[in-house]
Amino acid sequence: SQQGEEDPQALSIQEGENATMNCSYKTSINNLQWYRQNSGRGLVHLILIRSNEREKHSGRLRVTLDTSKKSSSLLITASRAADTASYFCATDGETGANNLFFGTGTRLTVIP
Amino acid sequence: DAGITQSPRHKVTETGTPVTLRCHQTENHRYMYWYRQDPGHGLRLIHYSYGVKDTDKGEVSDGYSVSRSKTEDFLLTLESATSSQTSVYFCAISDSTGTNQPQHFGDGTRLSIL
Q1: Is A31 in contact with B104 (Cβ distance < 8 A)?
Q2: Distance CA A93, CA A51 (A)
Q3: Are B102 and A96 in contact (CB < 8 Å)?
Q4: In chain A, which residues have pLDDT < 70?
Q5: What is the pLDDT of residue A94?
Q6: Cβ distance A100 to B99 under 8 Å?
Q7: H, E, C per residue of B30-83
Q8: B59/A contact by beta carbon, under 8 A
Q9: What pLDDT was estimated at residue A112?
Q10: How far apart are CA A30 and CA A95, in angstroms?
Q11: Rounded CA separation A78/A14 (Å)
């Protein structure tokens, strides 16, 4: 399977702390995306990073990509209770098909 | 939020019955996708469409069929539902090839097959 794997599976932090989630994948990619899912809702796109990029920022989010290690990390700085959600990475396949392959997610709980 | 509506939002049915889930979009996006989400598996692609009447299989297509007769509607059919198809089903859309564009998701259909 080309599915990515997030680590840790669950993370609990205090409001104001930083949260780091990692994603590892198995095949070569063209790009990698991160999504957030609030309980009972659909996924919301956060950020896309291309294989020739090493770091990307969006507000309080920072994503890194290391293609040599086939891994990515998502950092949320100064976390808020509203950041409580599951976070998923998604990669495309080396075939270049239209499919995205999602990991199993990290469940983040931010304690007020 | 992208204009994506999934119906029904919840459904309980019995093994062997046919089930059709509907995804409706108001964004005029070309690509539409059906995923299922199960604990321990993340989201897995069932089928996708790249235009009216143009569809293709995803990773877990067995037991499912799809149809797209209009740009705005993408239907997922379980011809004879089985308990293994109990899941949460998500529809997604994208404006271009999904791998280099974000996908926008509906809020899901929770399907229970008894």
Answers
A1: no
A2: 12
A3: no
A4: 1-3, 93-98
A5: 57
A6: yes
A7: CEEEEEEEECCCEEEEEEEEEECCEEEECCCCCCCEEEEEECCEEEEEECCCCH
A8: yes
A9: 94
A10: 10
A11: 10
